[in-house]
């Protein structure tokens, strides 16, 4: 067992943006002060979370149990490699997104900005809480808080359509969340503990059918958030939210929280071995593979850029689920690293979509024809990350997919190779035509008067993430040792098999 | 004085109830001050009593020094002492809230002194039931509570008189059942003292007299605690009665009958160590499950916030018998946590209902649009209350649900898991509908201006003064932060909203340090 460091930093990492949310609500009248709180909290969060990196890289875990919850349980934060990876990712991208949000919201003169920034801060608290939680109950508490705090963001536009999307989002996430709650209660009843243990703690605690039931119940919540088909319905509709919301929440925090939940439950509650024994891994892998292909096909048919990205997200998230359910160490490594890789690429794509929208006020792909010549930097970033999503070498997406591929071959699942190849081709064919058209197509007459790149507050963040996607593709341990963290996590899960 | 705390718990509100009408002849303000001091004193007393029970164990107090089973015995133990704290605490907050409420609300007539007398009597009854050590004294206090409740409901105006009358009839039928049941038990054992009965009854459970007695008592308490199918008096009474009265009626007072059931089924009949009680508990559990679902489904069908709350009360109060039916000490602790959690939450919701009534002159869910602008603090409180009702962390309702669900999983009663989860979801359906209207939708006239066309103008206006909007509900000239509500109405709302979160996060502490003195027959102590 790894060495344990007792430290209350995880608690502060969660609290800092909750406090910021309160301050944001109170300073709604002064928008510069309000935005200052957001930026300050984001910077503070990064400082706190990233300061735990050396400890975790040294193979230790940071533990903090601030509150007892009765029944021998407590609110536990336990920072291990996988959790820290997600927390660093979420906190790091929050800062970038905050700048971007300010630029975006001010350019479009959106309403309800106070509520928007406050809900955003609560979301980030929950996401980091999910990342750092040390047992299932803590995980669930933050998971539900995330559901709740995302709702105001989804219905930000306050019109009929947004309200409908919000309701649908709630139905999907609350129902599945309650199933997860039942699963957690059953887990507690059979195992008497809820603490995450690398490699799982449920083996031999109950008869097989019971364990399968628990597996299905526990995964219900995370899988819905991760948009596994056929539980993905809420995700494309939630794209009605402003683009920064889609960017951070639907490419990073919410859906990634779902994926991270899958990683936690498969890797730290059940463990690859038990999943293999129960025979639940293959159905999950098949479902993920179907989602990958089907989502890509649907993405091809979407005329709206955001919708296309939404379906692309659904497909890409299933890579993580697929990697976790292939059970071989390399595939798990790929899955965990894909958490980071996809986040960086997809946030860039959403940023570009939003940046384009601030200029053109349309996201129909046909209308974007010729816009690449007007905004070359924006579309260059888009092209780069599109290629990354498809899995081109030297962009960060390649590494994770390559690992999943190797892992699949390792485990003898040769059909996965076909799935990955088809998916890569589909990705190219639904993403690449967009920049092609933008650079080479004729400009629409009604958009002819658009000049220049978007304002700096929106442009710079997306360039940063695009460059990051490229640099990390070559040096995967820059800037936060993400690859190394993923390796440590895999070593823990597979008890040194990697 | 400390030695006589159990009886003083009852005497303080009772004496105040008798004095206050005379005081109000002298000075209305003096009378109100005395009343509020009495409620505060009562709350402090119950805290002291709880502290003593926690440190020194069960507290048996013999009235006038007469030893039981001849004299009247008052008992405070690990169940009744926390219950008394909740009841007196809620009573204090409600009494604060009521004072400006009657002044502010144009539709309420001026029944204030009558209201306070009845309210004090009701509080007397509730604390009385908590401390009662024999089943007849319990009956007396139950009836003090109930009779004042009928009167309080009837204070609400024309339609309330009818609702109150119906409540009176059904409540009296329930009381009669209870009394006859107690009579049967007395005939079989020759005793009324609870401790005495607990020793005698478990050997007599084959006797038809005892069985029939228990059935009568449970039916009587079932009527009073509005367990489906004996609930039909509740929606009308809780819709029509004056808000502050209902804020206590639907919370601490309604749960006292579940408490009485607990006393009979567990303390006297031995809980799951006894075959008869086990069977009764099983039936009770099923009825509670039906109540939970029925109340929630009916709440969804309501368009009036008041009525929705009334049905939701039926559902939420049934969590208590549901947890009792699980029967472990932890489940009982969870039931007590629900007493705390639901009392606070529902009290808060009724206070908010009163606030809507005063400020917006409506409680129809569809007309609550724009509440977020007129009453930002109340809307935030509404959000917290809704979280607690649905059972979303970190509000206290979640932890109640979590405890009940884990206990159900631990004892293999999987049906209850399904019921609890379904209940949470149904709660979500009707509360999110309210939240959508109250928090996010703009006031009615403004709804269409949110298209993209005039976004710029709206934004500029919002940037200049985000909180003071031009369009508000007609008839309310000065909305905004400062004039939200009079401080005495707002303070209990804020206190309760904060306490819901505190009780949620601190639920583990409460369970481990306050509710750990629950001992059940058959050696079921806390932590086994």
Automatic annotation (TrEMBL), chain A:
Ranges for domain NADH:quinone oxidoreductase/Mrp antiporter transmembrane: 133-426
GO cellular component, one term: membrane
Entry-linked InterPro entries: CPA3_Na-H_Antiporter_A (IPR050616), ND/Mrp_TM (IPR001750)
Major localization listed first in the record, in broad terms: membrane
UniProtKB keywords: Membrane, Transmembrane, Transmembrane helix
Pfam families: Proton_antipo_M
Subcellular location: Endomembrane system; Membrane
Membrane topology, as annotated: Multi-pass membrane protein
Keyword Iron-sulfur: no
Protein name from the UniProt record: Multicomponent Na+:H+ antiporter subunit D
From TrEMBL, chain B:
Segments crossing the lipid bilayer: 6-26, 33-54, 74-102, 114-132, 167-189, 209-234, 246-271, 283-301, 373-394, 414-432, 487-511
GO terms, biological process: ATP synthesis coupled electron transport
Localization annotation: Cell membrane; Membrane
Coarse class of the protein's main subcellular location: membrane
Keyword Transcription regulation part of the UniProt annotation: no
InterPro entries assigned: CPA3_Na-H_Antiporter_D, NADH_UbQ_OxRdtase, ND/Mrp_TM
Residue ranges annotated for the NADH:quinone oxidoreductase/Mrp antiporter transmembrane domain, each copy included: 132-423
Keywords: Cell membrane, Membrane, Transmembrane, Transmembrane helix
Protein name as catalogued: Multicomponent Na+:H+ antiporter subunit D
């Amino acid at each position: 067992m790894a060495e344990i460091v007792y430290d209350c930093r995880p608690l502060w990492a969660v609290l800092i943006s909750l406090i910021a949310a309160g301050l944001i609500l109170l300073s709604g009248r002064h928008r510069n002060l309000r935005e200052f709180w957001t930026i300050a909290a984001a910077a503070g969060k990064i400082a706190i979370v990233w300061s735990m990196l050396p400890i975790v890289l040294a193979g230790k875990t940071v533990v903090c149990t601030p509150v007892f919850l009765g029944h021998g349980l407590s609110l536990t934060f336990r920072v291990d490699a996988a959790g820290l990876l997600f927390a660093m990712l979420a906190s790091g991208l929050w800062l970038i997104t905050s700048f971007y949000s300010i630029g975006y919201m001010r350019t479009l003169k959106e309403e309800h900005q106070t509520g928007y920034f406050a809900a955003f801060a609560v979301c980030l608290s929950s996401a980091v809480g999910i990342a750092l939680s040390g047992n299932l109950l803590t995980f669930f508490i933050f998971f539900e808080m995330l559901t709740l705090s995302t709702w105001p963001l989804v219905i930000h536009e306050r019109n009929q359509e947004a309200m409908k999307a919000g309701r649908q989002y709630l139905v999907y996430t609350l129902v599945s969340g309650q199933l997860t709650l039942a699963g957690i209660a059953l887990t507690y009843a059979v195992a008497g503990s809820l603490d995450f243990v690398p490699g799982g703690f449920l083996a031999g605690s109950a008869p097989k059918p019971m364990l399968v039931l628990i597996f299905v119940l526990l995964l219900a919540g995370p899988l819905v958030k991760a948009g596994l088909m056929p539980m993905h319905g809420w995700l494309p509709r939630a794209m009605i939210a402003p683009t920064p919301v889609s960017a951070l929440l639907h490419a990073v925090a919410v859906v990634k929280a779902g994926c991270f939940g899958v990683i936690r439950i498969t890797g730290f509650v059940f463990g690859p071995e038990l999943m293999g024994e129960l025979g639940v891994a293959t159905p999950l892998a098949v479902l993920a593979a179907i989602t990958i292909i089907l989502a890509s096909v649907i993405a091809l048919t979407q005329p709206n850029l955001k919708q296309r990205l939404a379906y692309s997200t659904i497909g890409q998230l299933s890579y993580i689920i697929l990697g976790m359910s292939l059970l071989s160490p390399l595939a798990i490594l790929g899955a965990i690293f894909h958490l980071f890789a996809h986040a960086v690429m997809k946030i860039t794509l959403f940023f570009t979509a939003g940046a384009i929208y601030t200029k053109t006020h349309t996201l129909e792909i046909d209308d974007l024809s010729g816009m690449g010549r007007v905004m070359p930097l924006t579309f260059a970033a888009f092209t780069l990350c599109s290629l990354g999503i498809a899995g081109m070498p030297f962009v960060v997406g390649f590494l994770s997919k390559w690992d999943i591929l190797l892992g699949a071959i390792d485990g003898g699942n040769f059909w996965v190779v076909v799935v990955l190849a088809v998916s890569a081709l589909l990705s190219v064919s639904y993403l690449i035509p967009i920049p092609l058209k933008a650079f080479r197509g004729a400009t629409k007459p009604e958009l002819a008067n658009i000049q220049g790149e978007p304002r700096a507050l929106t442009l710079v963040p997306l360039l940063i993430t695009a460059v990051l996607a490229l640099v990390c593709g070559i040096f995967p341990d820059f800037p936060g040792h993400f690859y190394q963290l993923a390796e440590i996590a895999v070593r823990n899960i597979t008890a040194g098999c990697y | 004085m400390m030695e006589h705390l159990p009886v003083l718990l009852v005497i303080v509100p009772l004496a105040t109830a008798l004095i206050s009408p005379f005081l109000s002849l002298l000075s209305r303000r003096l009378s109100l001050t005395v009343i509020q001091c009495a409620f505060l004193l009562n709350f402090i007393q119950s805290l002291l009593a709880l502290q003593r029970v926690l440190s020194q164990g069960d507290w048996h107090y013999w009235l006038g020094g007469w030893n039981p089973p001849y004299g009247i015995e008052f008992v405070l133990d690990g169940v009744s002492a926390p219950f008394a704290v909740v009841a007196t605490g809620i009573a204090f907050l409600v009494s604060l809230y009521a004072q400006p409420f009657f002044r502010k609300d144009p539709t309420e007539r001026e029944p204030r002194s009558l209201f306070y007398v009845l309210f004090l009597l009701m509080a007397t009854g509730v604390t009385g039931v908590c401390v009662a050590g024999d089943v007849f004294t319990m009956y007396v206090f139950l009836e003090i509570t109930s009779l004042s409740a009928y009167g309080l409901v009837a204070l609400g105006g024309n339609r309330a008189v009818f609702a109150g009358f119906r409540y009176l009839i059904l409540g009296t039928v329930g009381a009669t059942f209870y009394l006859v049941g107690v009579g049967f038990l007395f005939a079989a054992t020759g005793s009324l003292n609870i401790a005495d009965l607990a020793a005698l009854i478990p050997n007599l459970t084959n006797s038809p007299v005892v069985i029939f007695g228990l059935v009568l008592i449970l039916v009587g308490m079932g009527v009073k605690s509005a367990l489906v199918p004996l609930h039909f008096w509740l929606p009308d009474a809780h819709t029509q009665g004056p808000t502050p009265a209902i804020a206590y009626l639907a919370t601490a007072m309604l749960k006292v009958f579940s408490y009485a059931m607990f006393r009979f089924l567990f303390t006297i009949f031995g809980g799951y160590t006894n075959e008869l009680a086990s069977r009764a508990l099983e039936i009770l559990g099923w009825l509670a499950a039906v109540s939970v679902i029925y109340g929630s489904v009916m709440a969804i069908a309501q368009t009036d916030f008041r009525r929705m709350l009334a049905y939701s009360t039926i559902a939420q109060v049934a969590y208590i018998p549901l947890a009792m039916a699980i029967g472990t000490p932890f489940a009982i602790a969870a039931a007590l946590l629900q007493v705390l959690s639901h009392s606070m939450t529902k009290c808060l919701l009724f206070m908010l209902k009163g606030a809507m009534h005063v400020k917006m002159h409506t409680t129809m869910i569809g007309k609550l649009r724009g509440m977020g602008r007129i009453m930002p603090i109340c809307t935030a409180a509404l959000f917290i209350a809704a979280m607690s009702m649905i059972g979303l962390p970190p509000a206290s309702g979640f932890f109640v649900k979590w405890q009940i669900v884990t206990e159900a999983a631990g004892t293999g009663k999987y049906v209850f898991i399904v019921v609890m989860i379904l209940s949470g979801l149904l709660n979500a359906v009707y509360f999110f509908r309210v939240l959508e209207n109250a928090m996010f939708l703009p006031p009615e006239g403004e709804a269409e201006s949110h298209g993209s066309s005039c976004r710029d103008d709206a934004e500029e206006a919002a940037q200049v003064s985000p909180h003071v909007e031009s369009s508000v509900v007609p008839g309310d000239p000065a909305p905004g932060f400062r004039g939200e509500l009079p401080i005495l109405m707002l303070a209990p709302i804020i206190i309760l909203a904060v306490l819901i979160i505190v009780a949620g996060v601190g639920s583990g502490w409460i369970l481990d340090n306050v509710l750990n003195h629950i001992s059940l027959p058959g050696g079921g102590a806390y932590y086994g």
